[in-house]
Amino acid sequence: MSDSRYSYDEKSEVWPYFGATLTALVIVPWTISKVNRLRTVKKDLEEQKSYDSGFRSPNDDQIQKFKSRTKKEPFLSWNNLFFAISWLAFGCFAYMIFNHELSEEKDFFDPYEILGVAYSATEKEIKSHYRKLSIKFHPDKVRDTVNMTREEIESRFVQITKAYKSLTDDEIRENYVKYGHPDGPQQTFHGIALPKFLIEGNGSPIVVACYTIFIGFVLPYVVGSWWSGSKVYTKKGIHAESATKFFEIMAKERTDEISHEAILDVLADSEEYKILLPKLSKNDIKSILIAHLERKPVKNENEKYVVISRTTTLLEGYLDIVSAFRSNEVSQKILDVQKAIVQAIPLSQLFAGEVLQIPFMNIDKVKSSKVSNFKALEQLNEKDLHSCLRLATQYDAEKVIKAAQHIPKIDIVDAHFKIPGEEIITPKATAHVVMKLKVHSAINSKTPTPHLVVEEETDAILRNPFATNESGPTLPFAHAPFFPGFHKTKWYVYLVGERDNKIIEGPHELTRLDLSNLELTKEESVNDDKINICTYKIPMTQLTPENAGKYSFKILLVSNSYFGADSLHQLFMDVVNEPEEDEQVNAEIYDMSEPEEDTIAGQMSQLRGDKVKRSTNNESDDDLSSEEEDLSDIDTDTDADNTSDESDDEDPSDKKIE
């Protein structure tokens, strides 16, 4: 009858390894994630401080605290509590593993180690060591010592005797060689890697309760929360209700009737604010947005920071919706609102946004000085700037110049359509747009354009033409002293139809770009050898037109952070048909003529019932036969002529006599 009882790990020899392994599977990736998050936070803070114009908003201290708090996880949180408990459990398992001594019964039997002899020892040396050890550990000759009891001495003597016999006695040695032990096959124990007290006794209900809670409550809750969250939020991270409200506006309203104020209204009615700030109404949220644009304080600054920091994510979600409607006009208005919120500029003053985003500037100074854009600002030196803009000190004028110099402006110096491996644009082909970009300071538009180098089409570029889009350095955070968040600078790239102003491709995000041209001095910026030209490629999801002709487009580069940093370039696509010569060459290359009838291939084709060409020999025989027929015809005609001539020469009288 089989024994139905289970053997548990009562001596904690195995189950700590099992527990440590399971715990490590959780805490190792968890720890890596936390370390990477801390590194990212530190990098973001250092990157934002890498450029400092010296200007501070009135509530800069509160903004910096809010930024740090949103990036860093609170020390006292459930996440950190479970993280600490997990590491504590792993430490307990590790302590049990390193401080546990395996029982001697399960030790590997090594007679050489027991006798203390080398593996190359002779039988004489083995006997000598055995005599010494048998005298030392013989139970009848050794009394109890402080370090060993009598039972341990007897066990030791038995081990020495077994080791000696396994090396000298042939029968016992055969058992050792065959089974690894002088006593022959040993009993193998198979148990469960759990401590006995958890299964039997008082610990059993605890295990059942933990199992029930995890399987019945924790796991369904986690999976359900993840599933509901994935359904509630779009891929751009905005709530489905917020996306639905803006979608309805796009579907019902005319695009030219959707104004900046309408976008601000739907922004204030977002579902995110109802979840984050349930006590605030739509009008309260809109009042906070307007107060931020006008750079005015509110009663609860923390609520304002929560509202403003969420706006960029919402507006990016709106852009994704607008792209489905192909409305370039609404897209530009959304980006105008985003830039206004980032730089804290009222919607009624967008015409002067280029100057108002610079430190120490306001609408009164703009109106009095008539300096409302970068072009007018570029014509002023520090001395004129100090007096014209009524700045407090000359140091403030230096800050204004420094801030304006670090606003990047992109010029599209060249753009063309390209089919990989082809020199022309053919109908119904997959093409992309290649752009050459020159970055310069917003107040230094006179930088020369160096000679453009034609990109060599290597195998790597033919395999992945868009690898160059990811080769440049990541764009830094925007200089936005009034914005309570980390806002990454980027440009949205659009390909727009010239005729209907509809979006054809985009928006594509330009997030990597070399801004080293901004660090050039005035002397270096006029040297075209110092100017760096970048390449960006726009993938085309649509095929080229099926009819040959010339088509007109526009490329738009729109910044999400700065006014006056946008760029517009006209682009033409000249679609031509493939040359006829190439078609003839291809026809000759791929022409598969029929085999001749007197060849093996021809005979096989005849068996299959296919057509074959007549052999050249048969054709020559036919030619010879036709020539003979022609010659015979000629001879016959000649004989006939001769006969007629002879008959003509006869005398008619002879005929009559006959």
From TrEMBL:
Keywords carried by this UniProt record: Chaperone, Endoplasmic reticulum, Membrane, Protein transport, Transmembrane, Transmembrane helix, Transport
Chief site of localization: endoplasmic reticulum
Topology with respect to the bilayer: Multi-pass membrane protein
Subcellular location: Endoplasmic reticulum membrane
GO BP term, pick one: post-translational protein targeting to endoplasmic reticulum membrane
Translocase listed as a keyword: no
Transmembrane intervals: 14-33, 75-98, 206-227
Pfam families named in the record: DnaJ
A GO molecular-function annotation: RNA binding
GO cellular component, one term: Sec62/Sec63 complex
Name of the protein this chain belongs to: DnaJ-domain-containing protein
Organism the protein comes from: Nadsonia fulvescens var. elongata DSM 6958
Organism lineage: Eukaryota, Fungi, Dikarya, Ascomycota, Saccharomycotina
